[in-house]
Write a structure and sequence with these properties.
By secondary structure, this protein is α/β, with parallel strands linked by helices. It folds into 2 domains: 255 residues, Rossmann fold, CATH 3.40.50; 104 residues, no CATH class. Helices cover 42% and strands 14% of the residues. The protein is built from 13 helices and 11 strands. A 6-stranded mixed beta sheet has the order 2-8-9-1-10-11, with helices on both faces. Strands 3, 4, 5, 6 and 7 form a 5-stranded antiparallel beta sheet that branches. α7 links the parallel β8 and β9. The longest helix is centred in the middle third of the chain and has 23 residues. The protein is globular and about 60 Å long. The relative contact order is 0.13.
């Protein structure tokens, strides 16, 4: 028997898990569910609303409605994205000064030359391509996908800062008290317009950030993207306080929410291997490729029944390989502090692990024989 979205929202609340991951096709009611969940946790007509702080933060299609374009139709030169006054952008931009991190997140997933330029009041932002010289840069109107990515970058910076604040167990030591009552983060399809490589990066970033949360904060993530879901499924596979769901809209207009115990048929490990092979062949290996490598090891170890993925590594240098993968697949607190370019030895190590461990020992079928025939290297 089907349920209403309010009943589904109630079930999510009563499940009481640190992370709840939901897969649903487009049109299944994900965005409406996020609104119903917010109304359930923090109803607008609650008498206590003015007396308590924020209980739920959510990112969905309505978040993007806070931003709109002024296309300068008269002159067609000063195109800018305007920001409607709201508490969360005011806090993250004006009070916390997160502009550099927002720009770093945005450029990480789009183009490192595409630069957001905020005005002093942080009420509007213009975009330009940095030329590297003193010539003036023309303001451009970015694509809808880039716009979504920019808006997500603002929310992600807020999320990053919020988790950091709430990780301070001593309430009196926190830099602000406005998140003390925060209970839930609801994320609905953050950026589905990204290419597969950057979508995997984004999913890994979200998972790592959530896993860094040590407070009682709970997270609900919904998506229609199989690859995004699969990455998150595997990232949270060893987080016991997690539940995976599948949301469906039934013919009669009601909804069902059922357990999704397996990631099948959503499989991305072969895509990851193909991306690693291309990076090895071109020499364009960066830090996020070690995330890909780690994901393949984790998925393989689960399939083979190992308790820990590091058991797949060569026994004689297991700890050294493990520490290197962990260090290079982890992010600093702020992406702007990272160096994405690796030294030549790290590149050789990644090539060795892909070639000798993943392909030769565990017999993944390579898409590029040149990668298999390259010279071996040790730690």
């Amino acid at each position: 028997m089907g349920k209403s979205l309010t009943e589904i929202a109630t079930e999510l609340r009563d499940t009481n898990k640190k992370v709840q991951l939901i897969y649903a096709f487009n049109g299944s009611g994900k965005t409406r569910l996020s609104r119903k969940f917010k109304e359930l946790i923090a109803p607008k007509d609650s008498d206590a609303e003015d007396e308590s702080g924020i209980k739920v933060l959510y990112y969905n299609a309505f978040t993007e409605d806070l931003f709109f374009w002024d296309n300068d139709l008269d002159n067609d030169t000063d195109r800018k994205l305007k920001i409607q006054p709201n508490s969360y952008t005011n806090w993250i931009l004006k009070e916390q000064g997160q502009e550099p991190n927002i720009s770093a997140h945005f450029q990480r997933y789009t183009n490192d030359k595409l630069t957001p330029n905020f005005n002093e009041e942080f009420s509007e932002v213009r975009f330009s391509f940095e030329t590297g010289d003193d010539s003036d840069s023309e303001y451009v109107k970015i694509s809808k996908g880039e716009e979504s990515c920019f808006i997500w970058s603002i929310f992600y910076s807020l999320l990053e800062q919020t988790i950091d604040i709430l990780n301070e167990a001593e309430v009196s030591e926190r830099e602000t008290d406005q998140f003390n009552d925060l209970q839930y983060i609801f994320i609905d399809d953050p950026v589905s317009s990204l290419d597969d490589t950057h979508l995997i990066e984004l999913a890994v970033d979200i998972a790592m950030l959530i896993k860094s949360s040590t407070s009682d904060l709970k997270f609900i993530i919904t998506t229609h993207n199989p690859l995004f879901y699969n990455v998150l499924f595997n990232e949270f596979n060893r987080v016991k306080d997690t539940r995976k769901w599948r949301l469906e809209k039934l013919i009669d207009g009601t909804f069902s929410l059922a357990d999704q115990p397996k990631d099948s048929p959503f499989s991305y490990h072969l895509f990851l291997l193909a991306e690693l092979e291309k990076a090895i062949e071109s020499g364009e290996i960066q830090k996020y490729h070690f995330n890909f490598l780690r994901n393949i090891f984790e998925k393989t170890s689960t399939f083979l029944g190992f308790n820990n993925w590091e058991e797949l590594l060569p026994r004689d240098a297991r700890e050294a390989y493990y520490n290197r993968i962990i260090n290079l697949s982890s992010h600093s607190k702020h992406h702007g502090e990272e160096v994405s370019i690796l030294d030549e030895n790290d590149k050789r190590v990644l090539g060795y692990l892909v070639r000798e461990i993943i392909i030769k020992i565990y017999r993944f079928k390579p898409s590029n024989t040149e990668v298999v025939n390259q010279e071996n290297v040790a730690v």
